[in-house]
């Protein structure tokens, strides 16, 4: 079994995460790799770093687990973003909202204020309002 220093790029879960996420600007890095489990960390300027770990054993079990991880709302949210001009500002708001457990309505209020002050484009504000805090898996209320 490869360890972290030797052959890490050949570990299938890492390849799958990279193939699925790097085109959207995610940084995907290897975590610990052991005989029984693997881990990867992901990060994006509009999100917050996060980690995933799963079983090394049976390929079918590992494949199902990876597919569930990759269906995360956060990955979809980043993929479906409009053109973002104010990436650093929006990312910082989403990370602060996650860290401080802000309700998504608070993020929506920030988005509207920043749009009204012309600090975000209309598209950015609408996206931020829908996106909410980083890694919140609930969909916005209609």
Biggest beta sheet summary: 3 strands, antiparallel
CATH fold title of the largest domain? Metal Transport, Frataxin, Chain A
Q: How many domains comprise the coordinates?
A: 2
- What is the CATH C level class of the largest domain, in words? Alpha Beta
Number of helices: 6
Helix content: 40-55%
- Helix and strand sequence: HEEEHHHHH
Gyration radius over CA: 17 Å
pLDDT < 50 runs, ≥5 residues:
1-7
Strand order, largest beta sheet: 1-2-3
Features:
Metal Transport, Frataxin, Chain A; 3 strands; alpha+beta; 6 helices; 142 residues; 3-stranded antiparallel β-sheet; 2 domains; disordered N terminus
Structure report:
- By secondary structure, the chain is an alpha+beta fold.
- 46% of the residues lie in helices and 14% in strands.
- It contains six helices and three strands.
- The chain has a three-stranded antiparallel beta sheet with strand order 1-2-3, covered by helices on one side.
- The longest helix has 13 residues, at 87-99.
- The radius of gyration is 17 Å and the shape is elongated.
- The termini are far apart.
How do you describe this structure in short?
The chain is of the alpha+beta class and 142 residues long. 46% of the residues lie in helices and 14% in strands. The radius of gyration is 17 Å and the shape is elongated.
